[in-house]
């Protein structure tokens, strides 16, 4: 009963609003204490968008992808090409082009890959993503190869941001991305709580029963795949703008692994879980990088969390609530005696 209550609260729209407000209020405090932590907040908000899209495919549809870096790369290079070949420096244009590019690629490969499930879908996505990654290297006269495509600071709503100092620029970037995250999270919340979202859960839990009641399993998976690709493409464009450089590394399989890790870290069965997971992942990464072997430290922390909390950090919230209610129940019995 307690687990259901916590999940219901985590899936409630009010919990999303409260979370966004908390992230908005705590950011200036975190940045004033440590600019490095403030920058981590920026990356966390950026990757949370992709995590929401990935969780629609994994948590709600039941398809695990090891190649979602494909769409991150498509979104990033779409923004890079728009600047390199068209000279456009508008962040809004970058986002629109990344959405169209990732959607186009998803429409091409989606009807093929969604016919597979479990490890077959995961490996097929990994293979396709690695093909795109190799193309970014091979066609170096177009993509820049390992040197990549350098991006200056873009304009936002027609206002140039190039001459701003880093602190002011990052504040503007963070709150813009956080606002975009809030909007996209609200849209995702509407999706997962719609009849379409309920159909996705049926497909995830029992494919045969979904077919029996007339649900087109392949079509539901394809729609989920397309939406997930768009969210990842948006993150790809934002990562390119934030880092001011587009290289093939964004399309590498390790990037896909990062997306899987931070989604699992927060919890896949609670709506706000991926957002919490993204912030937790980047804060852990920031702390771990203070050590010489930071990758070993970070890997050990993540593995420990996954082993001890298979349901993600939201499971820790659930256990805390259970302990609280158990102690309260005991205290009430003691008073009654």
Structure in words:
The structure is a single chain. The protein is mainly α and 337 residues long. It is 78% helix and 2% strand. A two-stranded antiparallel sheet has the order 1-4. Strand 2 and strand 3 form a beta hairpin. The radius of gyration is 21 Å and the shape is globular.
What is the number of beta strands? 4
The protein's oligomeric status is single chain
Distance between the amino and carboxyl termini: 26 Å
What is the helix tally? 15
Portion in strands: under 5%
**What's the SSE pattern?**
HHHHHHHEEEHHHHEHHHH
The strand order across the widest sheet is: 1-4
What structural class is derived from the secondary structure elements?
mainly alpha
Largest sheet: 2 strands, antiparallel
Mean pLDDT: 84
Give the proportion of residues in helices.
over 70%
C-alpha geometry: globular
Task: Give unreliable regions as ranges.
Answer: 330-337
Q: Radius of gyration, Cα only, in angstroms?
A: 21 Å
């Amino acid at each position: 009963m307690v687990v259901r209550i916590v999940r219901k609260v985590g899936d409630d729209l009010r919990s999303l609003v409260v979370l966004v407000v908390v992230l908005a209020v705590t950011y200036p405090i975190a940045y004033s204490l440590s600019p490095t932590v403030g920058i981590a907040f920026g990356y966390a908000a950026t990757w949370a968008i992709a995590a929401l899209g990935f969780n629609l495919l994994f948590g709600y549809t039941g398809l695990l992808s090891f190649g979602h870096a494909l769409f991150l790369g498509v979104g990033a290079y779409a923004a890079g090409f728009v600047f390199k070949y068209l000279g456009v420096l508008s962040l809004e244009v970058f986002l629109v082009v990344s959405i169209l590019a990732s959607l186009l690629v998803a429409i091409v490969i989606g009807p093929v890959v969604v016919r597979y499930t479990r490890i077959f879908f995961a490996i097929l996505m990994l293979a396709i993503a690695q093909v795109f990654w190799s193309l970014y290297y091979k066609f170096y006269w177009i993509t820049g190869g390992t040197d990549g495509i350098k991006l200056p600071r873009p304009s936002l709503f027609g206002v140039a941001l190039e001459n701003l100092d880093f602190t002011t620029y990052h504040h503007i970037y963070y709150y813009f991305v956080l606002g975009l995250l809030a909007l996209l999270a609200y849209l995702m919340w509407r999706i997962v709580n719609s009849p379409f979202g309920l159909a996705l859960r049926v497909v995830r839990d029992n494919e045969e029963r979904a077919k029996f009641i007339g649900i087109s399993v392949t079509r539901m998976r394809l729609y989920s795949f397309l939406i997930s690709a768009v969210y990842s493409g948006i993150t790809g464009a934002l990562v390119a703008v934030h880092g001011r450089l587009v290289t093939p590394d964004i399309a590498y399989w390790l990037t896909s692994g990062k997306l899987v890790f931070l989604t699992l870290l927060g919890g896949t069965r609670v709506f706000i879980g991926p957002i919490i997971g993204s912030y937790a992942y980047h804060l852990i990464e920031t702390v771990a990088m203070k050590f010489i072997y930071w990758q070993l430290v970070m890997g050990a922390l993540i593995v420990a969390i996954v082993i001890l909390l298979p349901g993600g950090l939201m499971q820790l919230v659930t256990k805390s609530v259970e302990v609280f209610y158990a102690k309260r129940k005991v205290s009430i019995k003691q008073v009654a005696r």
